[in-house]
Specification:
single chain, alpha+beta, 6-stranded antiparallel barrel, Alpha-Beta Plaits, about 575 residues, about 50% helix, 6-stranded mixed β-sheet, Serine Threonine Protein Phosphatase 5, Tetratricopeptide repeat
Amino acid sequence: MKTLSAIDSEYKQAREGCVYFPLEDFCLLEALGKDTFSFLQTQTTNDVLNRTVGTGLNNALVDRKARLLCNFSLHKTSDTSALVLIETHQRDTLINQLEDYHFREDFVWNTKTSFSFLVALQGPKSPVVLENLTASGAGLHSAHDIFTASIDGIETCAICKSLTGEEGYILACSADRKEDLLQALHKAGESVGLVRIGTETRETLRIEAGIPIFGRDMDKTHILPETGLEHTSVSYHKGCYIGQEVIARIKTYGSPAFALMGIILDGDTPPAMDALIKIKTKKIGVVKSSVYSPFLGKVIALAYLQKDFRSPGQTYEVSLNNEPAKITTCLLPFYQTAGKTARAKQLHQEALVIFKKEESLDRPIALLREAIALDPKYAPGYEALGVMLSKQNKLDEAIALMKRLTEIDPQEIMAHTNLSIYYMQQGRIEDAEMEKAEATAIQFEKLIEENQAKKSREKLDSQEKEERERQVEMFHKVLEIDPIDQVANFGLGSIYLDTGKFEEALDPLKTVVEHYRDHSAAYLALGKTLEKLSRKEEAAEVYKKGIEAASKKGDLMPLKDMQTRMNQILHSGS
């Protein structure tokens, strides 16, 4: 077992740099045949038909009662094939279950793919490492994207997938090239301090990221909506599949009695797996994975909680396996990383601060290289890096950088302007004039587009105004007949909120929450209205009630919005 200091060091590198670990508990299966996607569409919970080649999604398999049989991700490699990433111990369940319903479809499994060795590359600087390995890495922008490339002569499959809450990828190659790939990985990661992490650190990162695993946090006794997977692994707009009726019914009429969310505990000792959570003699939940969180400085756990106790930010005195404890409920994930663009902006700002303080340009240039590797479309990073390279008289590299930006975004004016400047410094007058003319032409085109867009917006605004007036008139007529009609009151209040008539919005929205106490969106709209009227304490009270209603109903989006807004109000008042 590693020492605590070693785990702390690994954790810090995972959250700030880049780490890797062999993924021995996962495998890749290949699904083949012209009926692959039409067959999987009728059997699995997510919409696989609308995938384009090179993209993927989370998916799951349930039985007729919507009990979870297995979960996995699917990645489309051609119009007739896909790779399935799944935990190895779930592989046979997936294969056998689907084969039970496989009759004449042109669909087969290949369980012996050439990608039998898997390694996870995770951390905010993992895009930099992937870029060092292969320039194609910049194409993996969305979760579950997939591509194959040659890395030092090794045929490698790369999947964009986070297992830690950070940016991340899974690389796969044949088992006989395992050491070659790891060697290439070490070399590509030298600049960012790439290290291998152990199972303890990996588990900490996973739980902080709120990622449940089959067999520990969920199993065949759980219906899928209890596990939280419906937010990422279910399509409510596709056709029928096994278990679809139960999942749709729960979505329409309420939420499961118990559902997975986070709890933060007082004390230093993680609770036991499957510890019962009770208030007096009433069971309100059960603990699953738990760990000490360096991010929060607290013990955290994934737990199934009864719906009356799922409002986030609530503290309860409970017993865990009959021992007294205090828990605070929390939405998952516990830890959420900033996006690529936000990190690129941060690195850009750090580079500018150092640039002003130090004579050497080496450090800010290195930071800017990281920034554009993280977000290849982050134009300010290219511009700043080009300026610094030109100050070092590295004009050829600065020009190459600006050309790359014009390939990414042909309408980026500053790229052409900077090219004009750099060409002029090299004495390439004709090239400089061409780029200057291109920048001027783009600027002129944008002015024309903006003018046309303005006219289109004005026309659209006029049409929307007429439509709103028609709706307001209709809602008033409905309310003359039924003053507490839910749709009319909410519609009227929403229109008044959107158009800045905040006083007029209050009464209809209050009517909705008074008579329809589970209407999550009405609480959110009412809270926003009160905030606009500078009645923030009242807004916070509305959000508190709305969070409770949304938690019971399972309305995740308005719940998160209300939680964020309430926290901002409470923080601003402290």
